[in-house]
Amino acid sequence: MANYAISLTSLRLLKNALQDRFPFVKSSHLSEAVAAAAGFRTNAALIAHSSSTSSLPTLRLDNILFVERLHSFGYSDVMPFAFGELSLKTQDAFGAAATATTLSTEETTMPKLFFSYSHVDEALRDRLEVHLSLIKKQGLIETWHDRGITAGSNLSAAIDENLESADVILLLVSADFLASWYCYSIEMKRALERHAEGTARVIPVILEPCDWHTAPFGKLLAVPKDGKAVTTWANQAEAWTDAVRQIRKAVEEVARAKSPPKAAPGAGPEVASGWGVGPQGFSDSDSMRAPTAGAGQSMSERPRSSNLRLKKEFSDFDRDKFLHDTFDYMGKFFQASLEEVASRNAGIQVRFQQNGSDAFSAFIYRDGKAVSECLIWLGGLGGRSQALTFSHNANSARGSFNEMVTIESDSQSMYFKTLGMQHHHSERDAQLSEQGASEYFWGMFIERLQR
Prior knowledge:
With about 450 residues, the chain is an alpha+beta fold.
């Protein structure tokens, strides 16, 4: 993967080199694959971006995205390669072909981000890495965690090496993280030492509620906002977005500190070969020099991606379990919330009623008079609907309801989506966790007492 300054001219040079490398690929398909490698949906969007600014934009070219785009066009035989292997033919001032040169490289100043986490929290780490994808595609960071270690490598040595070279260290905090001897006593200890030395930035990411405030990192500013654990947010996507925004700020500060000083005013541009285009002075911005696998090089030093997530498939069993687990959680959530409402408010009485194994009712009375009630049950419309349904009428027939949440999924997790029958517009497109769905129904139930 590499970062290059691009212009319309340099794009043409790159495409010419790719046509020499892949003569069997249609020109239009190569253009779309280059756009994908640069993080754009279409070639038109890439051209518009490169021509919309007077300065050379620097974009990260991802060879994996390039190959995947070609595969989507049916070129399944195309194998991954390095853009630095390409030979670009420049032209002199008279249009004659000059000597072919390869893309030159120089050491990158891209910050490296290290994940310190318990393997119990791997699914949450995957979600965080998904939310960091844009920052990675923009060439602001490279990430590393222990799943990037190749088979046969020295595990401890690889972790130590990457922990020592990291610029930003994320502590993914949970009860399991605090209980892990290696995470707490090895990784966290060294991370905080480097933070105190000023050689790395440590950011605690609070995954779940736990007693972390008295930990050695307790005085550091944690994310998401106010150190509120990700799993306690009604919409976990909002939690990750908040965390990533703060991580981005830290990464940008680190990147500025790592950047080499700019040339003095009046100094001529240093033109590198390959991207240089005669008198215009177009040149390489920077790229990652991949170590060559050879004698004396360990397996852990070989270049490889940390993006090894695969799309997860969720079976009917997975969905049914998620549905029933959420229903059980929601029942406990309502029961505890009712008791808390009664304890905090004079003249309020409450009642929770389990209606068999697939439904429950909740009631609130003020001075003995019923003021709010609801019925929540497993299922929705149809015989085997994977949904939870809410009615404001505790004695409602199950064909009549006010709202429903149904199970959906993306490539990494399952969540609930609302039908949007109520006027809770902020939740209509939200991906709700079990707590988020419970909070959503509770909000509908308690709303009548809050008007």
